[in-house]
Amino acid sequence: MLKSDRGAAPRLRRGVAGVLGLAVVLASALLGSTAGTATAKDDEQSTLRVATATAVTTFNPFLSYYDGELNVIGNIYPSLMSLDQDGKPVPYLAESYETSEDNLTWTFKIRDGLKWSDGEPITAKDAAWTFNLIMSDPVAATANGSLVSNFKTVEAPDDTTLVITTKEPQANMLYVSIPISGIAIVPQHVWEGKVDSLKGYKNMEFPVVGYGPWILAGNVTNQYTTLKANKDFFMGAPKYDRLITQYFSNSDAAVAALQGGQLDQLGGVTATQFDTLQNAPNIKTYQQASDGWTAIEINSGAKTRSGKPIGTGNPILKDDTVRKAIALALNRQKLVDKVINGRGIVGAGYLPPGYPQFFWTPSEEESLSYNPDKANALLDEAGYTMGDNGIRVDPKTGKPLMFRFGIHSDDTGDAQIAPYVQEWLKAVGIGTKVEAMSFDQLNVNLSKGDWDMLMDGWSTGPDPTYLLSIQTCATLPLDDGSAGNTDSFYCNPEYDALFNKQITQFDQGERAETIKSMQEILYQANADIILYYKNGLSALRTDQVGGYLYGEPDSEGFYPLQNQFTNWRTAAPATGEDAAPASSQTGLWIGLGIAAVVVVALVGTVVLRRRATAGLRE
Amino acid sequence: MSSVEVIGQAGPDPAGPPERGPAARSDLPSYLAKKVAAAVVSFFMVLVIGFVIFSLMPSNPVAAITRGRRTSTEQQQFLHEQFGLDKPWWEQFGDFVWRTLHGDLGYSWGYQDSVSSLVLSRLGPTLLLMGAATLISVVLGLWLGIRSGWRHGSLLDRLASGTALTLWSVPTFWLGLILLVLFASGGVGPIPSIFPAGNMSTPGSGSGFTPAHILDVAWHLFLPCLTMVAVIFGQYVTIMRSSIIDELGSPYLLTARAKGLRDDDVRRKHAVPNALLPSVTVIFLQLGTMVGGAITVETVFSWPGLGYLTFTALKIPDLPLLEGTFIVFSSTVIVFNLLADILYRFLDPRVRQQ
User: Fold this and answer.
1) How many CB pairs under 8 A join A and B?
2) How far is CA B74 from CA A255, A581, B283, in A?
3) How far is B60 from chain A (nearest CA, A)?
4) Is A553 a residue whose pLDDT tops 90?
5) What local confidence, expressed as pLDDT, does residue B212 receive?
6) Which residues of chain A have a CB within 8 Å of the CB of B181?
7) Which of the two ends of chain A, N or C, has the fewest CB atoms closer than 10 A to its terminal CB?
8) Of the candidates B285, B286, B288, B279, which has an alpha carbon nearest to the alpha carbon of residue B347?
9) CB B105 within 8 A of CB B320
10) Rounded distance, CA B176 to CA B296, Å?
11) What region, left, alpha or beta, does residue B103 occupy, with left being phi > 0 and alpha being psi -120 to 50 degrees?
12) Chosen from A45, A222, A266, A269 to mutate, greatest number of chain B CBs within 10 A
């Protein structure tokens, strides 16, 4: 084979190319990093940068479902009430309210003198128009229709009076219009023209006319949303000039962004990420009381609203004793320790600890905490004799206590829980067959009653009415299988009576007591065995932001449930020794210089190369 | 499919120029017609398969979308009808074909927006990422492949082939995460945070074609692009290398050398053109899948492209959106295959003669 006559020139060119390549890489890194910090600070505006909970698809408050959007909507449109740090309603747009003798009429006094961001006054007519639109237009009812389903009329006799009459008394009225999880009130003069095209309307003409601590200034699809502070907000202006909520499709990337200083606050981190961040410099991790639970639901006899049994659920689970034994066999403390690394508390009552006024815990004697001996004794007593293979047998039918256990295939928590549950149930003579399936498949099976045991999880806003409602008989499906949104086919007239009672109790203390009695019934029924309440895990950059959190941590260090309506408004740029040094523009100029050199060198090489090979081209 | 057949053939017959008679040329319309017809048939198969797959998927979008929110029974019923789920499947299929032929890909449940406009708005970021990654990996891969094959067994060959194969077998999302943690978090040893952890631009940095914004996008593009290049350039290295090796012993190279040409010229002007055809096939296959983007890379780096759109659609699952992206991805592959077939006619004289 012939060897080429490689002169010095080609080798030199290769060297130059290599160096150039490296230079381009370095320059792009340097340039980018300086450009990033420089532009973030360019106009001397203080900016709070947080990660959004979900992607943003619309800012139309009539259609929005996702947390990432709702957090923004709750900050750019007003609502009648707001919440204090215990989750109790306090005045916002409504200064005060009174109810009629028959508890059917609510009269709200609307705060005078507030103006939409375009200068038009905010009046009771805006509120009445918003509620009436949701009540009359099915598209406008998409997101919040159920909140007004008990409303009869909503009227505004004058600019500061709003009168709502209801069909039945409605104790949760003060939660109907609250920031983020309730109805946002929109300016009638802006939205009147949008009614006909409401379905596809995304409300992305910036700046969006509204009122709240923030003004929606811009959005880049699937990337970030920009809000400007409303310096005239009557409850106190935000301390930052600007707020950016940025979307990350991957939570590890969001953690990296927080560590790398591209984010100031990040919520919803996993237990593992939380542990990593605990040791990171300039980062404060915090846990907040849970607003939801993880549970195992048990099919205690799926049936339709008319009482017709449906599905393939194992009839043995209709026996209260079997379900009670299952509850006793589960070591919930172990799950808290192992699955969520101790970041949460052991489950019992149906409503989560994030809302202390409704939180219920069982007394010592009714508590079904881990006790496999008692579970075994109960099953023995009920006649479920142990078979040769270690699985008990139903004395009536001779069938084994063998149950399907459906878990979410995309949930790592479920995957961790399943083997524990399988082992603990085995210890009391109950066999399980774990079936991992998609969220959708699991829901389809659930609604048809084709299940024995399933992993289940719910979270709730400050008003628990909906979460309580999915345990009532009224949520069972019709005979044709439609219209059901039951959680576990639980149906108990005694529970339903209390549900209907609490909705008419206008004294918040009395209502809370009724709701606690309802939870006691659910606890004893063991149709939903609450395993744990997982704390919200979040992290903050202490060198960037202060004053973000409110409330005092409890003895375990758990903060009260936070909400972005307050957090974003009270957060302030960090001061003192923790504060990060201000970046300078010098880096940008150095970067630009390097880039210029690289470009010149590249052009030069290409020209030289062309000249060197010119003789070979014809 | 026809482009796959061609992979097996080495290159143009170097023995002599093929005959270019008028008969061969007149075949062009019928050749084109055949290929286009095949593409149209494939497209209809895609429509059918797409519909079947996504109709068979168990789903209750109403529950999936509203879960966690208070919804009344009437409201659920309304959503159900709005999504057209109350119609029998043949009506849904008829609607589907009719709409698709008119360029309407349906209405996304999750985004509450038309699928066509969603796809269009995500096309740019995906083309930027995949275009840059494909270009760099083609240039890098072919360059390395040619040199490795030309001197196979050399240090460069062993290094290039080893690296290419190793990276080719690395899971994309894993490599992306590792790069992200290393270079974006600033949390690993002395490595500072020099690249952003995701997205396509710095929030609030402006937009449009200003130099600052272009630089900012390039800075955000770096890590995802590096991940893609690292994983895909290997295929070009191996294919180019093996086709060069196939050519090495050919008599025409000996002739070229006998004419006194320098080794570089023998390689560039004689060996490479003949060895390039299999790589062209692979490049076109890659271009066809380009629009589909890299679901994993886009998801790891929060890159707002089509791959990421598909990922969010899968999570709900948003069937019209999935169906729409499926059709768009499949038709791009069909179109690029068609283009490859046509291009082959010009690149490879033997195809003309068939």
Assistant:
1) 217
2) 41, 56, 53
3) 7
4) no
5) 85
6) 252, 256
7) C
8) B279
9) yes
10) 9
11) left
12) A222
Reduce the secondary structure of B12-33 to three states and give it as a string.
CCCCCCCCCCHHHHHCHHHHHH
CB A571 within 8 A of CB A384: no
Tell if the CB–CB gap between B216 and A39 is shorter than 8 Å.
Answer: yes
> How many Cβ atoms are within 10 Å of B22's Cβ, its own excluded?
6
Residue B91 neighbours by CB under 8 Å, 6+ apart: none
Distance from CA of A57 to the nearest CA of B (A): 5
Residue A52 DSSP class: -
Find the range with the poorest average confidence among A128-142, A204-218, B66-80, B114-128.
Answer: B66-80
Single-letter amino acid, residue A400: P
Contact assignment for B72 to A30 by CB distance below 8 Å: no
In whole angstroms, how large is the CA radius of gyration of chain A? 30
Predicted confidence band at B269 (pLDDT cuts at 50, 70, 90)? Answer: confident
| pLDDT confidence of residue A515 | 94
Is the separation of the CB atoms in A243 and A568 below 8 Å? Answer: yes
Which of B78, B298, B312 has its CB closest to that of A55?
B312
- With tokens 């209809």, the residue in question is B44
| pLDDT level of residue A585 (50, 70, 90 thresholds) | very low
Chain A residues close to B67, C-beta within 8 Å: 443
Helix (H) or strand (E) holding A30: helix A8-41
Question: Which of the residue ranges B81-95, B194-208, B213-227, B318-332 would you say has the lowest mean pLDDT?
Answer: B81-95
Helix (H) or strand (E) holding A274: helix A271-278
Chain B residues touching residue A138 (CB < 8 angstroms): 75, 78
Q: How far is A575 from chain B (nearest CA, A)?
A: 23
By CB atoms closer than 10 A (0-12, 13-18, 19+), residue A120 is middle
Q: Could you please report the per-residue DSSP string of B171-218?
A: -HHHHHHHHHHHHHSS-STT----S-SSSSS-TTS--SS-HHHHHHHH
A232-272 pLDDT, tens digit per residue, is 999 999 999 999 999 988 888 999 999 988 899 999 898 88
Q: For residue A360, give Cα distances in angstroms to A487, A503, A513, A536, B38.
A: 20, 18, 9, 19, 67
B277 or A242, higher pLDDT: A242
Pairwise CB contact (< 8 Å): A249 & B187: no
pLDDT tens per residue across span A338-350: 998 889 999 999 9
Report the distance separating Cα B303 and Cα B198, nearest Å: 7
Strands A283-288 and A265-266, how do they pair? unpaired
Per residue in A157-202, pLDDT (tens digit) is 999 999 999 999 999 999 999 999 899 999 999 999 999 988 889 9
Q: Nearest CA to CA, how far is B107 from chain A (Å)?
A: 10
Q: Do A31 and B215 touch (CB under 8 A)?
A: yes
- The first and second tokens of residue A578, run together, are 């923790």
* C-alpha neighbours within 13 Å on the C-beta side of residue B200: 22
CA distances to A356, A461, B47, B106 from B326, rounded to whole Å, are: 48, 37, 9, 12
Please tell me the pTM assigned to this model: 0.80
User: Looking at chain B, which residue has its C-alpha nearest residue A437?
Assistant: B58
Q: What is the ipTM of this complex?
A: 0.78
Strand spans (E) along A130-181: 151-158, 161-166
Q: Which backbone phi and psi does B29 adopt, to 5 degrees? A: -60, -45
Which of the pair, B280 or A295, is modelled with greater confidence?
Answer: A295
Three-state DSSP at A355 gives: coil
pLDDT at site B7: 39
pLDDT confidence of residue A579: 52
Lowest mean pLDDT among A477-486, B19-28, B288-297: B19-28
Query: Looking at the predicted structure, is the pLDDT value of residue B9 above 70?
Result: no
Residue whose token pair is 């009506």:
B91
